[in-house]
Amino acid sequence: MKLTLNSIFYIFLLGIVLVSCKKDDDDTIPHDPEAQALLDDENLVDFLQTHYYIPPAEGESFGVIDTILNDEEPLYSIVKTKDITYNEIDYKLYYLVNNVGEADLYPSRTDSVLVKYNGFDLDSTNFDSKTNFTWLKLSSTIQGWGYGFSFFKGGTNVSQPGEPLAYENTGKGVLFIPSGLAYGQYGSGSIGVNEPLIFHIELAAVKRVDTDGDGIFDIYEDENGNGNFNDDDTDEDGVPNYGDTDDDGDGILTINENSDPNGDGNPDDALDTDEDGTPDYLDADN
To answer: What is residue 188's three-state secondary structure?
Structure first.
């Protein structure tokens, strides 16, 4: 079959159109986490201003959130706010404390917690729940949990042999989490992209964690005390202290430098051979 000059010309034009369409199809709007954080906050504030909270009945784990119809008190007037900078983006985490909990320990962001929870999006769609107490390591959950659970403590174990776990005077409340501290631009399962989340929580118990097995609980490896365990790296080897078995990089394992003589996980009694104020396990020339 012969192709005329006109036919060749039209085929050429068609090719350009198809390539252009393919390029348009491939064009996506880049994710802007800073703009998304602002949008999330607008949506969260709107939700908090238009909904109210019914505390859990005695013996119940979770309260109820409903739309304001009359003169109910808006959530916005009773929640507290935590300003958080994560990956250089500023976020606002909103939280409601129904009961702090009577135990001694507040969890750090890497500790394990014994919890029940009920998760919703801003459309009040329930995407996940645990109605039996479950142990979870906060460092394996979303960032919003690591920050949010720090405002609660556990309760008193009143479990009976052969019966399900039971606790009294537990920590109870609600976390309102921007998407950047949740599943962000990727979503997860039925959770869509860039979705702020709501979690009703009950905290029964806290277990301190020693991630690197060096005898020091993670909470005491936050040397600068800012709550971010990833920016404490004494030997600057790229491994944060809480995950580094040799914190000062001197070739001697932290656990072998008398970092915790009394074995309670707190290095406040650590050996300081040269008495320079820096314990041996953080002092490379000792």
So the answer is: strand
pLDDT in tens, 108-146: 999 999 999 999 999 999 999 999 999 999 999 999 999
pLDDT in the model for residue 151: 98
Are the C-beta atoms of residues 113 and 203 closer than 8 Å to each other? Answer: yes
User: What is the DSSP track for 102-168?
Assistant: SSSPPP-TTSEEEEEEEEEETT--EEEEEEEEEEEEGGGS-HHHHHHGGG----EE---TTS---EE
The pTM of the whole model exceeds 0.90: no
CB-side neighbour CA atoms (13 Å) of 160: 1
Q: Rounded distance, CA 194 to CA 91, Å?
A: 13
198 by Cβ neighbours in 10 Å (0-12 / 13-18 / 19+) ranks as buried
pLDDT on residue 230: 87
Which spans in 27-93 are helix H?
A: 33-50
User: What is the band of 27 on the pLDDT scale with cuts at 50, 70, 90?
Assistant: low
Same-domain pairing of 225 and 272: yes
Tokens of 119: 């998760």
Residue where one domain finishes, among candidates 207, 224, 247:
207
Q: Which DSSP category does 28 fall into?
A: -
Q: What is the mean pLDDT of residues 216-245?
A: 91
Structural domain containing residue 279: 210-286
Decide which of 207, 226, 249 is a domain's last residue: 207
